[in-house]
Amino acid sequence: MREKYLPIGTVVLLKGGKKRAMITGFCSVAQENQEKIYDYSGCVYPEGYLSSNQVCLFDHSQIEKIFFLGFEDEEEVAFKDKLNKIVASVENGTAENEQTVSNAAAAPISPFAGN
Asked: Both 63 and 17 in a single domain?
């Protein structure tokens, strides 16, 4: 299996699953348990995002098979590098809080940030 944090658009089958999921985001928190940060958020494939109550949250270890690998370029590689560093700092207790993950990872490379 490839390293953690597959690109957006990757289509996977989760262990024990019957329906494939497409990765749509990273480091998501479920409303019912805000202590747990999941590696990925996704939607059902091929239907896509239908409603907020049909978003799936899962960890890299739950992926059984990769059917399609999403788009990778220099921007995605830089984002993944930054994301891995931020997640490592959170796991090591050196980040101020979990909100740091989404704020710091997304802001510097957002297409809306003028980069």
From this structure: yes
Looking at the structure of the chain, the number of domains it has is: 2
Residue 115 and residue 102: Cα distance in Å, rounded? 18
Is residue 62 located within the same domain as residue 84? no
4 within domain boundaries = no
**Model-wide pTM > 0.70:** yes
Between CA 38 and CA 55 the distance in angstroms is 12
Domain of 36 in residue numbering reads as 11-68
Question: What is the tens place of the pLDDT at every residue in 54-98?
Answer: 899 999 999 999 999 999 999 999 999 999 999 888 888 765 544
Number of other CB atoms surrounding residue 72 within 10 Å: 14
Residues 6+ apart with CB under 8 A from 60: 1, 4, 5, 6, 39, 40
